[in-house]
Amino acid sequence: MLYSKNLRLLLKNKSKYNFIRSVVNLAYRVHGKQDLDNPIIILHGLLGSKRNWESMSKKIVHVTNKTVIAVDARNHGDSPHHHSHTYPELASDVKHLMDSLSIKKADIIGHSMGGRTASVSRLVVVDISPISTAGVLNDFIPNVLKTMKSISFDGINDVNKAKAYAKKLLQSKSINADTIGFILMNIGVTPYKTVGWSCNVEVLSKYFIDIANFPNMSGKKYTGLTLFLGGGESPYIPQEDINGIKTLFPKAELKYIEDAGHNVHADSPTEFLQIVTRFLLLN
User: Fold this and answer.
1) Alpha carbons 16 and 133: distance in angstroms, whole number
2) Nearest Cα to 228, choosing from 210, 211, 209, 244?
3) The pLDDT of residue 162
4) Are the C-beta atoms of 131 and 7 separated by less than 8 Å?
5) AB hydrolase-1 domain spans which residues (predicted)?
């Protein structure tokens, strides 16, 4: 996870880069008081959604007394499906949301894909590195997406029945129970008013290489305070990446939660909350 206190500055600077990007209107949920003066914006990871952050969003509100806005990325959750899915576009979507809500400054918590989105835009980064790519991204996730693509929900018009059907097929692929539970959260009513994957599996598969790799940021850096928070049992932020991280984020701080995996906020919610809110409140 990556965190930054000054997202808008980096978002603004990114508009100078030669990226061709589309913009969509993101779905979001506001937790706490409706005060949009320097809120905390949460960006989920690949195949996640704002729903995955419901409990943690409420806890962060309670500790910080700040407004938390949990967002669905394009091609995920309740946000629109689009034929393209690149980090410059994901960053532009966040900037567009901030502009539409007249948010001039925000603190960003980004998990995995959301962490890289925040890195491209402006930042706590949770369990993702801008330097290297974990092997699990290159091997396991494409196979999960391939399996998801192979599941047809034709003739099924009940969400619970669809989840039960998909669960059996995913179990037959020897996918562990925790991952299956996470994947099944993507089953619901699609933008086309049918029952199936709420995430855009076709586009996420097509753009997986873009998702798995950090854009070329050579010569660019963000000089604000930034927290990278990794799971001690996760391979997503190798300790040897710290020098490269500090090249892009000179004031970066790298911490690990020892017994947590990739989903740090779910695996160790108490320690995650303590570390993140302390960083938010003291910096």
Assistant:
1) 26
2) 244
3) 98
4) no
5) 38-119
Contacts of 177-181 with C-beta under 8 Å, sequence gap 24+, read: 179/144
How far does Cα 278 stand from its chain's mean position?
Answer: 21
Q: Residues of 215-230 as b/e, b for ≥16 C-beta within 10 angstroms?
A: beeeeeebebbbbbbb
Handedness of CA 210, 213, 216, 220 (dihedral sign): positive
Instruction: Identify the residue with better confidence: 120 or 50.
Output: 50
User: In sequence order, which ranges of the chain are alpha helices (DSSP H)?
Assistant: 7-14, 54-64, 87-100, 113-121, 135-150, 159-171, 177-184, 201-206, 208-212, 242-248, 264-267, 269-282
Distance between CA atoms of residues 32 and 68, nearest Å: 7
Euclidean distance between CA atoms 46 and 103, whole angstroms: 25
Catalytic residues: 112, 202, 262
Q: What one-letter code names the amino acid at 177?
A: A
Cα–Cα distance for residue pair 47/148, rounded to 1 Å: 11
Number of continuous H segments (helices) and E segments (strands) in the chain: 12, 10
Name the amino acid, one letter, at 209: I
d(CA 273, CA 63): 9
Q: In the numeric block, which tokens belong to residue 10? A: 């980096």
